[in-house]
Amino acid sequence: MFDLILLIFSGALVGFAIGLTGVGGGSLMTPILLLLGYPAPVAIGTDLLYAAITKSSGVVFHHRKSNVNWKVMLMLAAGSIPVSIGLTLMVMRNGISDSEQYESLLTSFLGVMLIITALVIAFQKHIQRRISPVDDNTESHMDEYELEPAFTRFSHKHTALMTFILGLVLGFCVTMASVGAGAIGAAILFLLYPHWKATTVVGTGIAHAVPLTLVAGLGYLANDLVDMRLLGSLLIGSLPGIYLGTHVGSLFPDKIMRGILILALLLLGLYFTLFH
Question: What pTM value is reported for the model?
Fold first, then answer.
């Protein structure tokens, strides 16, 4: 009974963080499950299905608000879904899911992804301020465009290709660590589509995250790496947690809440990278 209460509380804690800051689902759930003693593959697999279920309602909401660019979502999925399927099939075929090397790889990769996610969240607003729509009628903007790095000019000319490549990267990162579809995906979408509203970036990211986490989670499930009792307990706690976090969030400054989240992700990332 104590374990059940602890798991429900963990789900509520992560849900509270999501409601409070808008981010932190996969970034916090898997580390918490590892700290509770669950093997890395089970923690990641369970978290993937947890993310697919909890984010599915967000897709419906953003679709009704016309916040989802389905063309871009499909370009992302064209890269991420095959990568996710390929990785899970490779694990299944080689039977490495129970090896210590596999768990160590997942844990170390998770630590690196947590550090990257913390940095992306820390500088995301700075990136958004730096990017503004280019107005061809103004000489200043033309000069600014000419001074852009070669990579930025390339991404503007080959946006579809870069979107597909982003899908490949996210497919690998999310399947290996259940982290990356949110903050990292959104940050790169802001770079590739600077004319988009923030709501479109968020909506498209969530629409892509649901099928990706579902496919990856089902892959882990096929490898017997999902704890269904754990999944149910987390879902029971997360729903009231998200509701409470959404209402409490308006009482605290956004900078403080995001600062706490960034610090937590950095410390967890360093712990799993260096000491676990």
Answer: 0.82
Give the tens place of pLDDT for each residue, 173-207.
999 988 888 788 888 888 888 888 888 988 898 89
Encode pLDDT of 48-61 as tens digits.
998 888 888 788 88
- Distance between CA 6 and CA 242 in Å, rounded? 17
Sequence-distant (≥ 6) Cβ neighbours of residue 253 within 8 angstroms = none
By CB neighbour count within 10 A (0-12 exposed, 13-18 middle, 19+ buried), where does 129 fall?
Answer: exposed
Length of the chain (residues):
276
